[in-house]
Amino acid sequence: MSETVKSTKKGLAEAAPHYAGHRERARDRFNAVGGEALADYELLELLLHIILPQRDTKALAKDLLARFGSISEVLGAPPSRLAEIKGLGATSITHLKVMQAVAQRYGRNLIDTEKPILASWTQLIDYCNRQMAFEAVEQFRILFLDKKNRLIADEVQQVGTVDHTPVYPREVIKRTLELSATALILVHNHPSGDPTPSSADVRMTKEIADVAKPLGITLHDHIIIGRSGHASMRALRLI
What we know:
The chain is an alpha+beta fold. It has helices at residues 3-15, 20-33, 40-51, 58-68, 71-76, 79-82, 90-109, 121-132, 169-178, 199-212, and strands spanning 139-145, 151-159, 183-189, 218-226, 229-232.
């Protein structure tokens, strides 16, 4: 082998980053065993490989999980809090938020609009959890259903603060009539993590039910989503 070829190979070896082999092994492991078998930091590290191809992302993945607690909470964290993490810039934060949006859209597409949404309570709760459980502020969303309880639309009606979302019952009913929906499921999240309904939640739900009933619109439930679980006002006999 010529000295030139030896020198070139040596130069390439020296130029390869120390984490290159680790990345390849991580990808190979994912392909072999799938994501379910990986620890959270391993899966997040693989995700960060895509965003930061020129960086060793193992330590960054662990830093993010130490700060936020889980992959879902990392993706759901506000950009301002993500910016506090050393190693994340504006572009990489945007990429994380894009991945969050893709995950939420994926969850929405899993709902079969040809089947009654109430046919699978577990699927409904899983969907709501994916959409809202780790949001940093309150969201109030409505699932609009037809007379066969099939999903017509899922819309975020209001976004509030960490502990309050303004909701206007007549606006809810107005949108229901615009979509020709005949039933509703209300959903909102509690960023505190505790899904227990507040007195304001109960009062607002009853107001919407009172306006809806004379118009032949059924309010099936009001579901509150928190990190620690969910609460159904119907199951709690609050509506």
